[in-house]
Each structure stands twice: as C-alpha cells, then as structure tokens.
Amino acid sequence: MDQPLPQLDSTSPPAAPEAEHAHGVLRDSHERVIHDLRMSITDRCNFRCVYCMEPGDRFLPKRALLSASEYMTIVDAAIALGVRKVRLTGGEPTLYPVLDTIISELGRRNLDDIAMTTNGSLLDPTRTARWKAAGLTRLTFSLDTLREDRMTAITRSKTRVADVLRSIDVAAETGLARSKINVVAMRNFNEDEFADFADLARERDLDIRFIEFMPLDSGRSWKPGRVVSETEIIEMVSARHALQHRDPKNPHSTSRHYYFADGAPGRIGVIPSVTRPFCAACNRLRVTAEGAVRPCLFSNTEWDIRPLLRNGGTHEDIKRFLVDSVWTKQAGHSIGAKDFQQPDRGMSAIGG
Ligand code: SAM
Ligand code: SF4
Q: What is the Cα–Cα distance from 170 to 94, expressed in whole angstroms?
C-alpha cells in the first residue's frame, strides 16, 4: 500500500484584505506587485553541487510532485493576476519527464518571457530546437568553473566543462536569446577564475552573472566569510578588463550590470543577494515541485496549494489562494542578522 504523502508544515495562507481580491493583481502588503513566477518542476538532480545539495539528500515520492496540468492550472491563475514571465527551474528541470509538454503549454499562453535554468548536462540540438519552437525564450546555465578538475569536485558529477560549453553553443545556434551563465562566487573556491569568465563573456557574447553564495545549501556549510562580495568580484574582473556600470532597463532586475569599457561584446552581472539585497524591488513568487507556494526565497512559511489542486479547486479558488499567499510576502531577508533562520529547504528543493 502507498505510504501517505509527506505533509507540508503549513496549509492555507490567512485571508488577505478583501479589497486585494478585487484588484486582480498579485500585490503584497509592502506594495510590491508580482509579475514573475518561478516554478521548480522537479526536486531531482543529476549533480550534487557543494553549495546546493548533499550526496545523501532524499527526493520526494513521484506522486507528491505536481503534474503538468497542475502546474498549468497555477500558471493560468497567475497570468490572470498579471504574471508575465515564467522561469522553469528545479532540481534539474531537464530531468522532468514531460518538460516538452510544459514548455508547449506555456508557449500557448501570451507570456513575455519563458526561461529555464539548467546545469547544461542534458541538452542536445534536437531537444533545444523543440523547446525553442514550442516557445522557450532563453536558457540560463550554471557553470562555476572552467577547469575540468574543479568541475568534478564542485558538481560531484561526470559532466565536463566542455559538455556545458557545448550546450551553451547549442543554445546560441538554436537562436535562443543570449544565454545567461550563473557562477556562484565562493571564497577560496573559484575567485581566481572570475577574470577568465569575463574572457568567456567577451568571446561568446554571454551574460555572466556572479551570484553571491547564499545560506541555502542543504549541507549548511554557509558562513559569512565564504561570501565574495560584489565589490571584490568587480575588482577582480576589472584587474583584467575595465568595466562600466549601467543601471538595468528592468527596475526589478536582481542583477547589477557592467559592460566592457572597450565596447567588447558580453556583459558582467552581479547578484548581490547578501551584501546588497534587492528585496524592495522583488517581483517574484515561487512554487516548489510539490506545490508549496513560497513568497520569498528565504520564507520560513510556505503555503500548500496541492490539496486545492487535487480536490477540485476552481480557477477562482486558485487565484484567491495566490493573492492570499502573496499578501504574506516578507519585506526582506535578514541574512547576517542574529535572528536569521536558514530555511529548512535547500536551493534544489526551492528552485533558484
Ligand atoms: N539545476 C539547475 C541549475 O543548476 O542551473 C537549476 C536549479 S539551481 C537550484 C538554480 C540556481 O541556483 C543555479 O544557478 C545555482 O547556481 C544557484 N544556487 C544553488 N545553490 C545556491 C546557493 N547556496 N547560493 C547561491 N546560488 C545558488
Ligand atoms: Fe542540481 Fe542545480 Fe543544485 Fe547543482 S545547483 S545540485 S545542478 S539543482
């Protein structure tokens, strides 16, 4: 007999003021409006990156994971409330068995942007072309080193740097928008390669984004001293290539943008989540692979939409649930403060 599904810690969000439901948008109590939905479509991964997962981490039973149609029910409610962008993430989203169905369904909605974050290990030209034809706008790749020996140590996988670089080329050849490359910046780990990543940005016209290491690793090895700050990152890159800062066009961008002063192609971004949080501009809502709605990456409270989905909740019920959930979005995170509490979930179980 099947074991009961693991219960999420919390259930439904408290009701938002009734006026919020009349607005028809997802707005939180700090007046931020949500346009960006991040859906983690699986908690599975074929890597065990040291800053994210531990080799012994357990996965959810398959029937706990949302189906493609359950995801689309959430997406349709979110679109009706003003969401314009969907990012698929995980775990590793390219492992999700019906990924093509989800991308095709998203492609039928009138969204501004359909993006996916991937470790780049499982792409090929045929798959990538299918995703593009179905409506995928662009890919973000994760790559933290350009050295093969370090790649093995970081990802604890057999995938090589050369495989990921090939996938990055495939994305460009397929005609997807310029790829972003996420590099987690960790002290005594990869900072001696930041300028090499800048070379890569210039050579391949890429958007390299250094992400400050966040306390979301399931191994809980995060310490303030392991964070390489935005200032240090820019200094290290500038030692080889002069950079110019430019404000992003998108006011909700989490990334600080820098261009090469000599006009070379490519761009450098820094996501300074720890040293310069962008919480006031945050327009995101997250849903995990088993239907936990998380108003913030660092939420310690999450709302379980799965029972509503599986017990006949209507479009209006789902919308109401999302409006109520968003209303609980916290003002910001308090990394570094005495009262900071690392969320129980690691990044792979939240969806970065
Ligand atoms: N598996 C896919 C990948 O790695 O691209 C998608 C999921 S992964 C959780 C999403 C992003 O989160 C990746 O770019 C990864 O580098 C980032 N990430 C994971 N753990 C992190 C941490 N502790 N601090 C900062 N970024 C982290
Ligand atoms: Fe997997 Fe992505 Fe986490 Fe690495 S960062 S372990 S690829 S989910």
A: 15
- From the CA of 145, which ligand is nearest? 1
Residues 298-323 have a mean pLDDT of: 95
Q: What was the pLDDT predicted at 333?
A: 85
Q: Identify any residues that bridge with 261 across adjacent strands, giving them in sequence order.
A: none
Instruction: State in Å: Cα 310 to ligand 1 middle.
Output: 29
Q: Global pTM? A: 0.95
Cα distance between residue 11 and residue 297, in whole Å: 18
3: in domain: no
Number of domains in the chain: 1
Residue of 39, 47, 155, 182 with the most ligand 2 atoms within 8 Å of its CB, for mutation: 47
Q: Does residue 224 form part of some domain?
A: yes
Q: Per-residue pLDDT tens for 140-156?
A: 999 999 999 999 999 99
C-alpha separations of 204 from 97, 194, 266 in Å:
31, 16, 7
Give domain status of residue 7, yes or no.
Answer: no
> So what's the pLDDT on residue 251?
77
CATH code of the domain in which 232 resides: 3.20.20.70
Domain that holds residue 172: 18-350
For 113, the 3-state DSSP assignment is: strand
In-domain check, residue 9: no
Residue 89 CA, ligand 2 centroid: distance in Å: 10
* CB 93 near ligand 2, within 6 Å: no
332: confidence class by pLDDT, cuts 50, 70, 90: confident
